[in-house]
Amino acid sequence: MRATNRDDIQRILDARHHDPFSLLGSHVEQEQRVVRAYLPYAAQAWLDDLDEPMEKVHDRGIFEWRGPLDALPEHYRLRWDDGHGQEHIDYDPYSFGPVVSDFDIHLFNEGRHWHAYRFLGAHAHEVNGIEGVRFAVWAPSAERVSVVGDFNRWDGRCHTMRVRGGSGVWEFFLPGLEPGALYKYEIRNRDTGVTQVKTDPYGQRFELRPQTAAVVHDPEPFPWSDEAWLQQRAGDAWLHRPMSIYEVHLGSWRLGSDGEFLNYRELARSLVPYVKEMGFTHIELLPITEHPFDGSWGYQTTGYYAPTSRFGSPDDFRDFVNHCHEQGIGVLLDWAPGHFPKDAHALARFDGSALYEHEDPRMGEHRDWGTLIFNYGRNEVRNFLVSSAMYWVEEFHIDGLRVDAVASMLYLNYSREEGEWVPNKFGGQENLDAIEFLRDLNSSVQGNHPGALIMAEESTSWPQVTRPTWLGGLGFSLKWNMGWMNDTLEYIKKDPIHRHYHHDQLTFGLLYAFTENFVLPFSHDEVVHGKRSLLYRMPGDEWQRFANLRLLYTLMWSYPGKKLLFMGCEYGQGNEWDDARELEWYLLQFPFHSGVKQLVADLNALYAREGALHHFDFEWQGFEWIDCHDAAQSVLSFIRKGEEKNDFILTALNFTPAPREGYRIGVPAPGRYREIFNSDSHFYGGSNLGNLEVEAEDLPWMGRPYSVVLTLPPLAGILLKPIST
């Protein structure tokens, strides 16, 4: 054996060879065909095609065969026994050439491969009629990468991968392996020699936690039946349509009889009828991307391409989405590209270097959350994230993503003191790389999938979040209106006797209401961490708490913007949300709670039916104050307008427990007005004070040519519509 071969063999034995294909497999040496295999568990080995034995040239499992150049086919089989009576036969994986195209790698390194999940990760594959699994992973700081699993006793010496030049991409074709196999990558860092076992960043299915291995996914196509929904979505003028979103944590909406999680399919059959009954148009799921810790609610993601196995398989989740679409319900997914956890099995220091994150903790760590920040300036990292977004829209027919914690991405000094952050190249606080990533994300997803929505949870006054990238905006479809939410909840929690001092908290939001495409959110964040439930943030006795909650929802549904409500809030859950327990469904036996539920269902129906309440959610033409100045009586009144001149709805809201008899407001047209909604109705648990119909008087008021006299019920809102003009 030549000295060169001896050195290569030693590196193979030590599992530190960066190019095992240069030694293993079939080669021409001195005008002979040489087949060399590393079989550490073999007592004997043969070339099965020739039924000829291989010589054991090293006692730690190196076998060789030498013969004529044309004696073997391109892909030959090895047969070996393990000394315990078990015989193994399969094609030699080192007889196969590269299985990832140069073009795919080029696009990936350029950061322009929006479907990187199609070549990275583990995929069932066929080469010259031979079936197996193709593995590919990005690990540029690795000296050696091996795929490990049950199929090789989790031994990183057995299946060392091929590196593709300086791309950092390692690949391997393992013949005979089938979908369902468990696998990870064993990675040796070239600088430190430290070896780690990591799960697949592009894994499309994982074991049930606390286990962390990836699972080779089944390539069988899912029988989708939602073509009509997707066609409608692509041509839908969603800005002018009603959108009312029910935010759900699947692990606590409903549980099984023994407290176990329900399967995606079971959840769909119980959740969808409820959502339809309540009149919501969309379901938004807290992240179901794979995550190790239940208490993170999915926001500390380790599997950006995998629905969590807590609730079933990827096809089970496809069935969930398909069923929603068949029933006319959209599905939105919370998605967290702003940070990722430090779990040793996942992305953190993936190849022994700061690969997905920054090396400098001033840029690479969220101290508030104990997580790491993606390095958005790295092409392959941006590609990983954008490709993930495309994956959910394309492979699972998701209707949109809600991007978590956008503010933390945009600002380099987010939640940091002076000296704890690094300015950008212009000396500013803006994260220029994150801005570029977000624009790439929005332009690629929405450009390729018209009608798919990308929402931003952005809590600052960053300009043009929902304006097109070609106008200098970030390109999001929608933005959560955190300012409106905070101001409104801060106001409504106050005792009514003090509210007239804080009237501006109700009116300030209209100064910026049409600068973005806003969603009005009462989300999970508002009912956790000691904030209490929405119901118990309301002041007063029991009757007043429920009346205030009904009033809050009436304001929300009549105010410009799409709607979002977290599960349990729709019937006034009493306790703060607990992710480890099922919602308090038993409360619906009590009239006040069932009344709130009926109110939300009726508001959703009214919002969907009346174009004036949704057509101009994002445009100033759809809103007009009647009176925003009546702080003394804590009353607001305004008009919502539709496309036609006479399509409008009057809203009047009384934020005190004192009924307002003979309250006059100006109206734009003569005729009769019918009360079409009253949150004080006895159907909802109210005192049933209000108006059936009122006649406009020829008396100018509040700058309008006509006026009506109303009875405003206590802690309630009413909506009126002209029935003749």
UniProtKB/TrEMBL annotation:
One Pfam family here: GlgB_N
Keywords: Carbohydrate metabolism, Glycogen biosynthesis, Glycogen metabolism, Glycosyltransferase, Transferase
MF term (GO), any: cation binding
GO cellular component terms, semicolon-separated: cytosol
EC number: 2.4.1.18
UniProt keyword annotation of Transferase present: yes
Catalytic center residues: 404 (nucleophile), 457 (proton donor)
Any Gene Ontology biological process: glycogen biosynthetic process
Pathway noted in the entry: Glycan biosynthesis; glycogen biosynthesis
Domain of life: Bacteria
InterPro entries given in the database record: A-amylase/branching_C (IPR006048), Branching_enzy (IPR037439), GH (IPR017853), GH13_cat_dom (IPR006047), GlgB (IPR006407), GlgB_N (IPR054169), GlgB_N_E_set_prok (IPR044143), Glyco_hydro_13_N (IPR004193)
Protein role: Catalyzes the formation of the alpha-1,6-glucosidic linkages in glycogen by scission of a 1,4-alpha-linked oligosaccharide from growing alpha-1,4-glucan chains and the subsequent attachment of the oligosaccharide to the alpha-1,6 position.
PANTHER family: 1,4-ALPHA-GLUCAN-BRANCHING ENZYME (PTHR43651:SF3)
Family: Belongs to the glycosyl hydrolase 13 family. GlgB subfamily.
Subunit and partners: Monomer.
Listed name of the protein: 1,4-alpha-glucan branching enzyme GlgB
Species whose genome carries this gene: Ectothiorhodospira marina
